[in-house]
Inverse folding.
């Protein structure tokens, strides 16, 4: 019995060592987990920064191409149009074929301007609100489909953000184009609001809805998803056959 206190102390010591070892293992696991989460967060930030850098380079290249088209090709088309007008005056007998050529030059000029606009939307120079209003008015005028914008008072607050504004503008542009081509809608409603640190856009129509979920996504929808992902945003599409489609976009903002 004289060894009982010693054995008890040994048992307590062993138990304490086991508890300390278990605590150390738990702390080590939590530390490794925290480091892994920190590394993952850092990697995601690097991916977003790389995507932003790539997008900036693409935007700069688009602006350069648009400028070259406008300055070089635009001047060449203008010169051709003036030459046609001069030849029509000098050679009345060729008036008809020259008029046809002049019409083709005008078509080429309009196509060139449309390409330049798609590369660098000039409408955004006046701000996102004006650009969206202009786009909606043009959509309603050309398609005959009523379209309204419901924006909260703070939707356009804050300094201009070129990348975010461009994504919102392009997503709305592609959404309205899809509605004209596929939706057979008679009404379109667009919502825009700020919620915490996100800018939310909703495009809703009352058309025929999208194909079945298993159907392959079109190029336009894939393009929308890619644009949104490049700025760290999220896009969701909800559709009910015969009851329309709702596209919801959420983009983080500063």
């Amino acid at each position: 019995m004289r060894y009982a206190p010693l054995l008890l102390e040994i048992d307590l010591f062993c138990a304490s060592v086991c508890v300390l070892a278990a605590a150390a293992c738990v702390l080590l696991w939590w530390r490794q987990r925290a480091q892994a989460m920190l590394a993952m967060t850092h990697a995601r930030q690097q991916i977003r920064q790389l995507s932003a850098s790539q997008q900036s380079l693409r935007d700069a290249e688009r602006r350069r191409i648009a400028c070259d088209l406008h300055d070089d090709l635009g001047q060449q088309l203008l010169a051709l149009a003036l030459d046609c007008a001069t030849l029509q005056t000098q050679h009345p007998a060729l008036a008809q074929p020259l008029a046809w050529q002049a019409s083709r030059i005008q078509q080429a000029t309009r196509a060139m301007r449309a390409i330049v606009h798609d590369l660098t939307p000039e409408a955004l120079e006046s701000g996102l609100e004006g650009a969206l209003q202009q786009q909606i008015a043009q959509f309603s005028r050309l398609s005959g489909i009523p379209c309204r914008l419901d924006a909260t008072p703070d939707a356009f607050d804050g300094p201009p953000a070129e990348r975010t504004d461009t994504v919102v503008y392009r997503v709305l542009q592609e959404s309205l184009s899809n509605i004209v081509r596929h939706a057979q809608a008679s009404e379109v409603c667009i919502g825009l609001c700020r919620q915490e640190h996100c800018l939310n856009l909703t495009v809703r129509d009352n058309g025929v809805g999208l194909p079945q979920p298993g159907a392959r996504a079109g190029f336009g929808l894939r393009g929308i998803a890619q644009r949104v992902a490049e700025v760290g945003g999220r896009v969701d599409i909800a559709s009910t056959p015969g009851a329309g489609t709702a596209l919801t976009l959420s983009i983080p903002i500063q």
Notes: The mean pLDDT is 82. The chain has two domains: 62-119, 124-252. The first helix runs from residue 4 to 90.
